[in-house]
Amino acid sequence: MKQDRNNKNFWNHYAKIYDIEINRFNRSAYSEIYRLISETVTKEMKVLELATGTGLISINIADSVRSIAATDFSPKMIETAKKKEAPDNVHFSVEDATALSFSDQTFDAVIISNALHIMPDPGLVLKNIRRVLKPNGILIAPTFSHGHLRDSTWKLNALLLKIIGFETYSKWKPEEYIDFINQNGFSVQTWRVLKAAFPLVYLEAKLQD
User: Fold this and answer.
1) Residue 126, Cβ neighbours under 10 Å: how many?
2) Which residue in 5, 11, 43, 71 is a FRET match for 158, CA 20 to 30 A apart?
């Protein structure tokens, strides 16, 4: 059997309970993410969200931007998102973050939340983001930090998750994650750690000159 290195099968199956799990374990953290993003973006901005899942972030910040292309590589996630009552400026579609179909310099901001750490090639994803961002564009990339969980218990849990089709490829500590973003064409402007099921690094960065 071919290995599902991008976890797509897992997310397709998980789509129908995604919102339930987010609200169960990370409701307050996501509420804070909505607030922080809404304070950063503006009504003139054309925004791309990668790994939108069922559209929670896009729907909750839609009033603060001009338009949002809310995308995910999981068809089931997008199918679930399209069943929701979303603002007219939110447009859902299936996209592969490692091979985006959008033209160069299309978006004022790109959001990718809690996804880079579970992508096999996050560097390639950031390369695609750089291409579609306008000059002085903003990257907003909240990501769970698993770097402190390197003991035997975590390794066992990670193994069990891998068996059911989910794998965390990058286990960054917050500072390691900041360095990774800075080393891949961006300059981190602000970051903080939010309390969630796991420490969650909220990060905003700009394209490097």
Assistant:
1) 24
2) 71
The backbone torsions φ and ψ at residue 144, rounded to the nearest 5 degrees and listed phi first, read -65, 140
Pairing type for strands 133-140 and 107-112 reads: parallel
Question: For 46, phi and psi rounded to 5 degrees?
Answer: -100, 120
Judging by beta carbons within 10 Å of its beta carbon (0-12, 13-18, 19+), is residue 166 exposed, middle or buried?
Answer: middle
Q: How many residues does the chain have?
A: 209
Q: Helix (H, G, I), strand (E, B), or coil: what is residue 160?
A: helix
Q: Kindly give the confidence (pLDDT) of every residue in the chain, 209 residues in length, as a single tens digit, with 9 standing for 90 and above.
A: 334 455 666 656 556 666 656 666 577 888 999 999 999 999 999 999 999 999 999 999 999 999 999 999 999 999 999 999 999 999 999 999 999 999 999 999 999 999 999 899 999 999 999 999 999 999 999 998 865 555 444 454 444 445 444 577 888 999 999 999 999 999 999 999 998 767 889 999 999 87
Residue 49 structure tokens: 């969200």
Tell me the sheet residues that pair with 105. none
Q: What is the pTM of this model?
A: 0.85
Give the number of other Cβ atoms within 10 Å of residue 96's Cβ.
15
